[in-house]
Specification:
The chain is of the alpha/beta class. It has helices spanning 22-33, 48-82, 92-96, 106-117, 120-123, 130-138, 141-146, 174-180, 209-212, 237-270, 288-292, 304-325, and strands at residues 9-15, 38-45, 151-158, 164-168, 190-192, 195-199, 219-223, 281-285.
């Protein structure tokens, strides 16, 4: 008898933003796209996650799975090439010691102080943004908007109202993606339809609600590249600012996960499972210990060696996830959302490399 083939699984992806750390997500996407058992129905992305999402949609429309993988590689290579002449580079000592942090980079330290003293309207009155030109060159948004195989959602924050706006086909453009990636201390707000927008991470990193409403699948895979937990107390000024940023950019994700958990409890208690009230199977691709080792400053390090290193990490995360949880897709959740809200007993999400902590009184097993 011929070998039994495992069925295809349809999933939705939620991609966090994180500057150059988005190359971790590149690796995850590359691994998922290489596996024809996995069908990606929708992607919700913010900032670098949004860029990865539109690159995949463009590549899929051009040449299927292989076209999407090639498009991702081409995009990240272009990002690296564009950064070659940047004054923000690693120090000679960091290069010798293979440290990818920019904490000792004179260019980074100067730029960091400059952006604290002056706004992008003062530093860059002409609003020059090389990343915008790069994205316009790499991505054909007409293809993205007509891509029949992938639904893309991109979130930005309305500066005036403080509310999120999620853009999707056929209204995706260079401006919507750049709005999603607009850090207010670095870039002028992006204006769309008379409204100004900043980075979507403040309100949805990434937005999960469009995926919860997707009736083509119940599996929602979050690709997390910002650590939720740091055991050590930040003590330096830079460490405190970086931790505040991590908390801020994870807050919206935690809030939406809480709503998903409440929906799950409501469905169980009231037995509301139907086409109108659908339970969602939440999964998480990440590696907590590895995320802790990535300095915040390295989000601006676009050296090809570093991006390749991150890609390999992301590939390994996704490969471990599929090896251990492929059969769980469509059957059950593999991430215990309730554990996020267990008060002081909260633990960092467990990776596939780590043994699960024993659940004690009042604790949930991740």
């Amino acid at each position: 008898m011929p070998p039994r083939t495992r069925p295809k699984k349809t999933v939705d992806l939620a991609l966090q933003g994180g500057g150059a750390h988005g190359a971790l997500t590149w690796g995850v996407l590359d691994r998922l796209l290489s596996d024809d058992r996995i069908q990606i129905a929708s992607i919700s992305g913010t900032s670098a996650g949004a860029m990865n999402a539109v690159v995949v949609a463009d590549g899929l429309d051009r040449g299927g799975r292989d076209g999407a993988r090639e498009a991702l590689s081409r995009f990240w290579r272009a990002v690296s090439n564009a950064a070659l002449l940047s004054p923000v580079q690693r120090s000679p000592w960091d290069r010798l010691t293979s440290n990818f942090s920019l904490d000792h980079s004179p260019g980074y330290l100067f730029f960091e102080q400059l952006t604290r003293q002056f706004s992008p309207y003062e530093l860059n009155p002409l609003n020059f943004n090389p990343l915008r030109d790069l994205l316009a060159e790499q991505v054909d948004f007409e293809r993205v908007n007509r891509c029949p195989d992938l639904r893309v959602f991109v979130t930005a924050t309305n500066v005036r109202t403080g509310r999120g706006r999620t853009f999707t086909q056929p209204g995706l453009s260079v401006d919507t993606v750049m709005a999603s990636a607009c850090l207010p201390f670095m870039f002028q707000a992006v204006e769309i339809d008379g409204e100004a927008y900043w980075d979507g991470g403040y309100i949805g990193n990434p937005a999960l609600y469009p995926l919860v409403e997707d009736k083509s699948t119940r599996d929602l895979i979050i690709v997390q590249i910002n650590p939720l937990v740091r055991e050590e107390l930040p003590r330096t000024g830079r460490e405190i600012v970086n931790r505040i940023n991590e908390i801020t950019f994870n807050a919206s994700l935690v809030k939406e996960l809480r709503l998903i958990e409440l929906l799950h409890e409501l469905i169980e208690v009231e037995r509301l499972e139907s086409e109108r009230y659908r339970d969602v199977f939440v999964h998480l691709i990440h590696a907590h210990e590895e995320l802790k080792d990535l300095d915040a400053s390295s989000k601006l390090n676009a050296e090809w060696e570093y991006l390749q290193h991150l890609r390999e990490r992301g590939w390994a995360w996704a490969d471990r996830f599929l090896e251990r949880h492929y059969d769980d897709l469509g059957v059950r959740a593999t991430f215990d959302v309730k554990a996020l809200f267990a008060g002081d007993s909260f633990r960092a999400p467990v990776t596939d490399d780590e043994p699960a902590p024993k659940a004690g009184k009042g604790e949930s097993r991740t």
